[in-house]
Amino acid sequence: MVILVCYDVSIKIENGQRRLNRVAKICKDYGQRVQNSVFECSVTPAQYISLKAKLEDTINVDNDSLRFYNLGKNWQNKLEKIGRDGTYDPDKDSIIF
Length: 97
Fold this sequence. Notes:
This protein has helices at 16-30, 45-58; strands spanning 2-8, 31-35, 38-42, 65-72. The protein is α+β, with helices and mostly antiparallel strands. The protein has one domain: Alpha-Beta Plaits. It has a four-stranded antiparallel sheet with strand order 2-3-1-4, with helices on one face. The longest helix is centred in the first third of the chain and has 15 residues, at 16-30. The chain is globular, with a radius of gyration of 14 Å.
């Protein structure tokens, strides 16, 4: 399944920049950055659970936020792109970790 992970990490509070870097690194382990704080990830249900747990353990829930959009298997029908587009395809480009 393909999921979209979006995050907003406050860098104005203690360890904010460190949390932001850690969240980005975790997301990179599971997918491809498509915008500054947005990643497309092709994951199994078990990988999705693991990704969510790692991110939840990293953020400060009082100041940061995470959003997960499950685009499912037919994600191509749910995505419309305008403007610059990379060549990343979650179904064809695999991430190995």
